[in-house]
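User: I'll paste a sequence; please echo it back and then give the predicted structure.

Assistant: Echoing your sequence first, then the prediction.
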Amino acid sequence: MSLQSPESLYVTSLEEVLCGAALVAITMVVHAFGMLMVLRVNQVATNRIRNTTSLLTGLLPVILASSLIMLVHLTEVVVWAAFFVWEGAFPNASIAYYFSLNEYTTVGSIFDLPQRWRLLEGMIAISGLLTFAWSTGILITLAQAFQEQRMQLRQRRHGQPSTREVK
């Protein structure tokens, strides 16, 4: 007679798939609103320092955007951690947040979810990868705008025509 290990008895449930899909969707909605906020704050900050020639002052909107993007990601991790606390997967919110952050960033964790929620370990990583890709796109756009502004300022200082003005 052979005994099966508990892991071999694991079967993905519809509840697990639906909860995971809902959490990924919520994460994406939070991220969408967060990225719109980042772009709006960046626009306001950029308009306020539009006429500055200081490199550091010109870089402030990108630094501010980076900080806000990080806060958006940390907020998304709260969504996952709250679910795990609600389901009783961890003894406290601190461990749930630590686990969620490590899985969201694909670092991995020393903790594991209860067997019935195992699929969510991969799904949280998927949501992290999707949102990090989106954030990277936003940050590249903002950094490119900063670089173009700096190059135009440099060209004006040295009496060179802007690359946009040359035909």
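The longest helix spans residues 119-157. DSSP finds four helices and no strands in the chain.
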